[in-house]
Amino acid sequence: MGNQPFSSVSPAAPVGATPEPVLQRRDDGVFFRASSTAAERQAAVGQTFLSGAYFSGLDYDLFLHLLYDASSGEADEPVRFADTVEPLALARRALYKSVKIVLGEADYYFEPVFLDAGAATQDANQGETLRFDEFVADMWQKGIRFGIDAVAVRAAIGNGKPGRCLVARRRDAVPGRDGAIVEVTEALHRSNAPREGANGKLDLHTFQNRFPQVSARTRLLKKMLPVPGIRGYELSGIPIEAPVPKDVELTSVAGTGTVIEHLDGTDFLVAAVQGFVNVDRRSRRISIGPRIVSREGVSVRTTGNLQLTGEYEEFGEVQENRVVEGGNITIHGDVFGRIVSRGGTIVLRHNLMGGTAINADGAIRVAGVAANAVLQTRAGEVAVQRAQSCIITGTRVRIGVAINCEIMADEVVIGSASGCAIAARSIVIESAGPHKHGEMMLFALVADTSRIDDEIADLAARGQSYARLTQRHRDAIDVITGRREVSAYLALAQRVRQREVVLTPEQLRAFQKIRLQVGPALQEVAQLSLAARQAQTQQALMQEGARAAQARKDALAGAASCRVRLLAGETVMRAMPYNPEHGAAYDLPARDVRTRLRAEAQTRAPVWSGSTGTLAWPPAARERQGGDPD
Description:
It is a single chain. The protein has 630 residues and is an alpha/beta fold. 26% of the residues lie in helices and 33% in strands. The strands form 9 sheets. It has a 20-stranded mixed beta sheet that branches. Helix 1 packs across helix 2. The radius of gyration is 54 Å and the shape is elongated.
């Protein structure tokens, strides 16, 4: 019948009825009761073998399965496993010798066998043949109740040649499979292949996809349930339990921006939002968010050059000649390469050494030292604790200590400046002086208002022109209204409108006749009055434009100032004109900043110099703040 499993349970016996025996002998074979358990079958088999019987025509594989592997109620009807139950005569039992058991394996020496001389069935020294079914019964009584190799034993018996044979072996337990978490999307994987540019060429310095990005609702991971192991058995039939497989939960890897969902009978870790995939090395948690977090540093080996669309936070170093482009960039290690931000804030938690930090629209903050570096922002503040031999430009620059730096900005605030060239509309320095062979040079950015002066003069001239035109129209009106018939009509018309005079019908007809006569003159007066009002309106607009231009000029002219609280050596200040219409004076390439400051030092005469005391320029500012104008 084989060792195929079964799937149903036999009905229970009626209450009060005698239960059926576990081992059932019938004319058509030997059966196990359908509802019997493995323990009951083992007990029944043991009783049979110990009583000196054996199973003839035994289906050993099925027999072994029913004793050890079959579950209770596996079959819905009795299972046949042998032909008959036969007695095992003592004379034949003596044919089976001892077996050697070592480390879960049983060896048996097969040799020609003979019945004892006193056997009644045949003559003495008559050769005899072993039988597999008897072998199984004899081995059971010798303690081998599991794992007989039926094929090997039958072959050894059939061969008839003497020799040692491995007849049984222990079945070791088969470990199960621990629960596991597996990936379900390729989007989690990086691609370190060179990026292909728009021109079809490969950029060997940039990876194709260093920081994976996923969309919302993407399935990231799934949980694989643990699979139980398979029980083993000693030769004695004692079970060897398989280790209990370990389970794992998705909560151990679920981070911010992810959720656990039960879909199609399986637990999945799903991205709750669109963003970049970040894996924490220590906790192994996966998080999804707008910020890229890296701890490997930026180098040729780890990331190559980076061109990012989101925020970026790096805990390692940015090595020399490496470029990081993105927005809202934070670097915790030293920076030796180039940081370029499209906006937001560049935050360098450590040092900027020989590198570059450029921000199109936002601040640059360096918590450590900037040396031989370039820091530039078009619209934002540059804040550095200590800067040495740097080029710095921005809307506002704040430095603790600056040495041998070139700085241009709208506003500069420095604690200590030595050997620097600084140009700004507003300069405030606590202490300033030369450094070794480097001069301390200050440049007050003074707006070039010549174009505004031309604008004011043009508006004033146009306003005066409209004033003269207005006066000409008024003079023409006076000439027309000065005629006798026109003046008489206007005087009478005014008295009639004010009801000072009541005209008779004849007087009314005469009045209307006069109106017809002076009508053309009155129309001309109306046209001249309208033209005069229009010219007067234009004159007012020109005057308002001139006042606005003057206000702009005053604001630009009064913005330049320079204050040094303590001079620690020779310091020279010059005025540096700039054209506001050309944009911010500091918006220059780094190489042009140094060139312009050094050129201005050669072409502009100093407006102030000194080596001790304080510097306050322009002096008029101090006078307006309460000083004696005399």
